[in-house]
Amino acid sequence: MRHFMENLRPKWKSFKESMYLLAKNKLSLAAFIIMLLLIFAAILAPVIAPYPEDVNSTHIEDMLLPPSGEHLMGTDELGRDVFSRVLFGTRVSISTALIAVGIALIIGVPLGAIAGTSGGWIDNLIMRITDIFLSFPSMLLAIALVALLGPGLRNAIIAIVISWWPWYTRLVRGQAISIKERKFVQAAETIGTSKSKIIFKHIIPNCISPVIVQASMDIGGVIMTVASLSFLGLGAQNPTPEWGLMISIGRQYFPDKWWYCIFPGLAIFLTVLCFNLLGDAIREILDPKTRKH
Q: What is the value of pTM for the model shown?
């Protein structure tokens, strides 16, 4: 028990320091609080949504009603409560982004570490394949892949992963090339530590900070990409309550029925802004050189 408490103390001190640095920046703190609220909204959407059954139901008699006390964000063309659908859309967008970024990390981080540590033909092979994917704009590549695979949220995730993993590979490779020259890695090689153990025990843990920063900022970008694909009819399909799809349908009624587009658009704006601000805050916490005094 005593040993456990001794190991826990420095971690708790580091956590308190991180929270202190986060609280110093009021904008980052506000973004962090809003992000927590968005996550709770995604988890508790069936509980807090005023009309949880409106995700897939139809109420023609209530179609396109303006915002009111009964429907805070109005209703859509099928009489469904927009506020309830925006809440459920939080679940769709955030979970999709986390899955896509997570899979891209699982692919890109080990490949970058292997390339940077191994060098030679292995490095050349991995990086030339990476360069092929990086030669295409991410959004254009995602659109082409979804068009090939067929519209749908699952195929959109696959397309985003394929277009996103090379960025992590290149980032980690640069870090790995620097880290492998440090004395603790050379010492591990001297005592006969296997290459795989060096990569996963020494290289990857020591280059994870910039990866965390990049991933936190990429979540906002992925949310925007998913919304864009859905807006084009290549992502989520009806009746999935996805923000980009809601805007795509609502533009037919804009500007007379402005609420149909505006509120999902504000949800995208707020979520992407929060994750971008949090990415800056995490970079400031993890990298002392960038801290503002």
A: 0.85
